[in-house]
Amino acid sequence: MGADPNPLDGVTGTNPHGAILVELSLGIPQALALPGPGHILPRRAGHCMLIFHMRKWFHIFALIGIISFMLQPAHWFLGLAQTNADTAQLSSLGIKTEFVQGAKLSAAELEQVVSLAKKCGILDVELVRTFHYLPGGGSGIEVTSKERTVGRSIFQDHVVVNRTGWGQRITKENKMQVGQLWVTEPYMSTELEREYQIGKNTIRVQIADGVAISVADRLIPLIATKQIQFQQDRFRQEFEELDVSQPISIGKNSFGEEGYEIFLPGRRILEFKEEKGQVIVTGIARYDI
Fold it and tell me: Residue 52 in contact with residue 59, Cβ under 8 Å?
């Protein structure tokens, strides 16, 4: 897809998420703590994902080889969601709901959730979901706005709401509260996706906080078309097994090292850096949810 004239070249995405477990190509399991408002575990990775909110970012917990989820591409990342068919709620509030077993909201609670989301900055609520925190336990609520499109960039806002009795401790500081429901700072996060033309396909790639759109626009097409180099020859064969034509997300390297990482189909992560305009693969990892 051609150059986008909109003035977003310096903008970085904001959809921070947390910790996952990965197995490096060396075969050594390592805990990967994704820093700050940094990386994303992508919503459209073709399988269920469970999230929870701690202060400024989402954290994702996984146990490699222990937790296995059924493929649920339509359910993005809150996992195990079951659509609530309460037509009274849908008609009165004009929004969609997806409630997991054991974490359903009454019509009154749903109205309070929407009210809280509006106070946090979401004026156009599209969806309210509930989810379970794993493996720690407890449940939470996520509110999602409608998408906003600016050129090739798509923005969507999210608010994570806590509820008394669902396993989360309420604090006196940095909170906004309505009844038994509350939100902690920064109250709302914004997810950025960007469209790219790869061959005959138009794909969406999530762009994490700290990655400029201009950088993503430069690097993603190079990786998707395999215009890359390798830091070590041992990565070549494994790279050929990856589906790089449909990258899911791009973010800063989660190990605190120089460079970036891209989440790929098949629960794979490609680590790389840029030197003199060339993409150099520095590692290949596998993650499980």
Answer: yes
Report yes or no: 108 and 72 within 8 Å, Cβ to Cβ.
no
Residue 139 has pLDDT above 70, yes or no: yes
Closest CA to 208 of 261, 142, 161, 272: 261
Beta partners for residue 196, in sequence order: 203
- Per residue in 172-222, pLDDT (tens digit) is 767 899 889 999 988 999 999 999 999 999 999 999 999 999 999 999 999
The reported pTM is 0.67
DSSP state letters, 154-181: EEEEEEEEEETTTT----SSSEEEETTE
CB of 70 closer than 8 Å to CB of 48: yes
> Residue with structure tokens 């077993």?
101
Note the pLDDT tens digit of each residue in 88-104. 445 555 789 999 999 99
Q: Is 32 helix (H, G, I), strand (E, B) or coil?
A: strand
Half-sphere exposure of 235 (CA within 13 A, CB side): 16
Q: Cα angle at 248 between 245 and 254, to 5 degrees? A: 120
Report how far apart the first and last C-alpha atoms of the chain are (Å, whole number). Answer: 32
Evaluate if residue 169 carries a pLDDT over 50. Answer: yes
DSSP result, 79-129: -S--B---HHHHHHH--EEE--TT----HHHHHHHHHHHHHHT--SEEEEE
